[in-house]
Amino acid sequence: MFTQSPIAERLIASFRQLPGVGRKSAERYALHLLSMPPEIAVDFSEAVRIARERITRCPVCRNLTDITPCIICTDEQRDHSVICVVEQPTGAIAIEKGGTYKGLYHVLHGVLNPLEGIGPAELHLDLLLKRFEGGKAQELIVATNTTAEGEATALYLARRIGALGVKVSRIAHGVPMGGGVEYADAVTLAHALEGRSRI
Questions:
Q1: Which residues, including other chains, have CB under 8 Å from residue 161's CB and lie 6 or more apart?
Q2: What CA–CA distance (Å, rounded) separates 159 from 168?
Q3: How many CA atoms lie within 13 A of 149 on its CB side?
Q4: Is the pTM above the cut of 0.70?
Q5: 175 pLDDT exceeds 70?
Q6: What pLDDT sits at residue 180?
Q7: DSSP 17-42
Q8: Sign of CA dihedral 173, 178, 182, 187
Q9: Across-strand partners of 64?
Q10: What are the structural domains of the chain?
Q11: What gap in Å lies between CA 11 and CA 27, rounded to an integer?
């Protein structure tokens, strides 16, 4: 049987590492991949390999990019005086879809969580602080999720960045409590950004 094969089990286990993918979905993905014509399956695996090799974190904002610095950091049409902090690249993608925000981003790739050993050093917050020390950036918009860890991270950033004399604001309510920025619709995110408040 298919699921008794160690090779198939490894493939299923690999798909299960993706967010929101349970056992049944992983089995469907594995079966579909193995049912594809060989050239399509090889192209799929090659696309994953190339993406892992060539897409890295921008040295400025830490967003995912295939060029360094990324196109948002080098775009002169954007407002370089405002930086929006998000937990994950999906947060920046969601805000961009709203179409109203024209500033820069900084991606944390996580939140402060002392119980899991995630502190300021693990989030590379020194890179964010450096962006404000030059004086060009004058406002920080905190768009972390409304979880306990997201709120703690927002307060930490408000204290550290605010101590530099920078205006620090938090996106307005509209993103549901306990929910993620990446799951909010574009209109909700646009209103949340426009109605942000100082913290």
A1: 128, 129, 132, 140, 168
A2: 9
A3: 18
A4: yes
A5: no
A6: 74
A7: TSTT--HHHHHHHHHHHHHS-HHHHH
A8: negative
A9: 57
A10: 2-54 (1.10.8.420), 64-198 (3.40.1360.10)
A11: 9
